[in-house]
Amino acid sequence: MSDAANDYEALLAEIDLAESRLARAVSSDVPSTAEHEYIKAREAYRRVVELHPSLDLPPFQRDALMQQLALLRSHLEECEGRR
């Protein structure tokens, strides 16, 4: 597997982890746990946003990554509205 493919997979895994954290934040009855999970998800989002421009991804991977980032951003905003 090429470095670009590995980088792409790592970024997608980071987005998946952030989505899982948001799901835990929304479903948690413990406010401190929910806040912690939200913060970690937001940090993951920022890491991916900062890293992806430096990667030499093929256009189809970049487009797919941008779609996943947009979806994560939407979920972050939704979670933010519930806080």
Account of the protein in words:
Helix 1 (3-27) runs parallel beside helix 3 (59-82) and helix 2 (31-51) packs antiparallel against helix 3 (59-82). Helix content is 84%, strand content 0%. With 83 residues, it is mostly helical.
Keywords:
single chain, 83 residues, mainly alpha, elongated
Please tell me what the overall shape is.
elongated
Compressed to H and E, one letter per element, the order equals HHH
Q: Radius of gyration, rounded?
A: 14 Å
Tell me about the biggest sheet?
Answer: none
Note the total helix count: 3
> What is the distance, rounded to the nearest whole angstrom, between the alpha carbons of the first and last residues?
41 Å
Q: Structural class, from secondary structure content?
A: mainly alpha
Estimated helix fraction: over 70%
Summarize model confidence as the mean pLDDT. Answer: 89
- Low-confidence residue ranges: none
- Tell me the strand percentage band: under 5%
Q: How many β-strand stretches?
A: 0
